[in-house]
Amino acid sequence: TATAKRSRPLQILPSDSLHKQNSYSSPTYQRSIQFSASSKRTMFKKAVEAKSHQRLSGADRKKLKRTLRDKFPRASDADMDVLFPPKVEIAVAKFQNRVLVYSVEGDFPMFFDIDGRGTELYPTVFALWRVPELLPSFLLKGGEVSRYMLGGADLMFPGISVPAEGLPSFRVGEVWSVKVPGNPAPIAVGSTTMSSAEAMKAGLRGKALRITHYYRDSLWESVDGHFVPNAGFLDDIVVEDPAASVVPQDSDSTEGLDNHPAIDEKDGNRTDNVGELAEGNATLDPNPSSSTEASNSQVEQLNVDVSNLIVSDNGGDGSAAEEQQHTLSAEEVDNLLDKCLLQALHTTVKDKDLPMPGSTLWSNHVLPCRPSGITLDIKKSTHKKLSKWLLAKSSEKLITVKEDKHKKETVLVSVNRNHPEYTSFRPEKKQEQKTEQHPGEPASSGGGQSQKTLEVVEIYKSSSHVNPIFSAVGADTGKLYSASEASDVVFQYVEKENLVKPTDKSTVVLDPALCDALFKGAIKKGSTYPTVIHKKDLGSTFVGRMQPHHMVIRGGESVVRKGALKTVQIVTERRSGNKKVTKLSGVESFLIDADTLASELQKKFACSTSVGELPGKKGLEVLIQGGKIDDVARLLVEHYAIPKRYIEVLDKTRK
To answer: Where does residue 215 rank: exposed (0-12), middle (13-18), buried (19+ CB within 10 A)?
Structure first.
């Protein structure tokens, strides 16, 4: 039988109080999300930034609710009001691959749209925990099956329990949830891969549900204040809820299949436990009594550690937190806003990211900095509106903002990092949550990552100029460093040698070793070497003396190369007569196959393409018939995620 494992206490909220989440915890996207290569498979894996965050207009809110009612006919108007209360702002986060995530502003994500067109909408587990009967559900044979589903596997028919009256009717492509026996809260959501008639013909074998989202995936992890609905939800498995004395049977649930491997591991990565299942050594027993004994064993183990759980009910800590939130005065909310802004300016808002829309500042930076369990509502402050609050901070000279008349939004332009409020504030260091890997569990592989997801990292290696500084602080001269890590090395040296000027804390006095590291060979002959340097210039000057490298990561493939990353060149020129041709080169630097890209361009733009050697240089060149310079650049940015700063265009046909 399976033993319930625990690595840390989880925050638990009872199902009858989920509608009070606004007062208990107000989540935002504190991390980002990554999607697998196919939008039809498990969507949320690792981190990638949302392209934008915005509020829906009144017309779009109504359209969304109409679409949801048509898509999920089991939901009543009252259910919809629970998920999207009337007269509240609905926010949408746009990600790559056109995926949209909808949530009530300052609340949990409720639905996500795979194709961005409203045809493939799915509820999140947060929505299903509030309205468990929103979807029909498959019932697993036992809690042990959930262990593999929480690893990102699809649901197979042999892992499902079929009721005595037989398999319920369903069509291919229907959205269903997944539940564990004895636990009313769904653990995953996905779409059926075949109809019930086809399943019966196949002997109830094969894949039943293609999972798109599940408890503990990165969508769940990305929410600040994420929680579990009951004590049966553990770190790596979901078991029967020990508080549930009666297990309700869903009319659409399924019970009793043959004992076969229940899990289809994606990308061909099968765990050792799945292999044991195939050999008949697992706990998935076709005998219902053995499944019950396994669940009872798990519950007994759970009860041993139940004292470690933080349980909130109507009379407990949840309502206390609610009372405390309601007692905050407008002035206290103002102070909390200011504290969160300063925390964000110190920790996450970088000058390179400016200018930044006010909505992005609020959702991506300010909200994640609020204390845990506290709802931060701008409407309860004296400012009432985000724009008025930002203008007030601008009048205090802490930040500079301007009005974007086109988008009708306040934009953060700059931060005054010499302002007394900024310099006197001491930011809090947040403890990062690390996911433990249990012995015997395989490390996650990048095989399921999207091939269109790109990450470019600029890294640096120690050079002969700065080697003495690295050696002085005991840093590895053969290691690759990010710019911030390299800056930390030189500041460690400054601290070790006590080089900060006593009369001016923002100035560093250069000793011979540091002066040589920063300026030897860079100062013209006969010129005087500097004796001091400002702290804000020290890090960048030190990094500039190191050997530049870059790392490019696309999906599960990565490469590290010496030197700066070369740009993609797109040139349009005239050939004989009035014909135009577009030449594209440099895509190999971004792990894009030139032949595959040429074939895609040929189909997308209905034109002839060819691939040849780049004249006089190493690399390949894609020739495209016609003046496609704008179309190609847009494709590389939107479809292949190449940052605009790495694309150079030249139109030689313009006079």
So the answer is: buried
Residue type, 389: W
- Report the distance separating Cα 481 and Cα 654, nearest Å: 43
Place of tokens 């008639």: 197
Query: Which single residue is written with the structure tokens 């847009």?
Result: 634
The pLDDT tens digits of the residues spanning 142-154 come to: 888 898 888 888 9
Amino acid identity at 409: E
CB 263 within 8 A of CB 280: no
Strand pairing class (100-104; 109-113): antiparallel
CB-side neighbour CA atoms (13 Å) of 224: 27
For residue range 470-496, list pLDDT tens digits in order: 999 999 988 899 888 999 999 999 999
Going by C-beta distance under 8 Å and a sequence separation of 6 or more, which residues neighbour residue 273?
147, 148, 282, 440
Question: What is the DSSP code (8-state) at residue 429?
Answer: P
In this structure, what token pair is assigned to residue 300?
A: 């007994």
Distance (Å, whole) CA 124 – CA 103: 10
**Closest of 373, 315, 369, 379 to residue 21, by C-alpha:** 373
* DSSP H/E element including 191: strand 183-192
Residue 533 near residue 544, CB atoms below 8 Å: no
The 10 Å Cβ neighbour count of residue 313 is 14
- As a three-state string, the secondary structure of 279-300 is CCCCCCCCCHHHHHHHHHHHHH
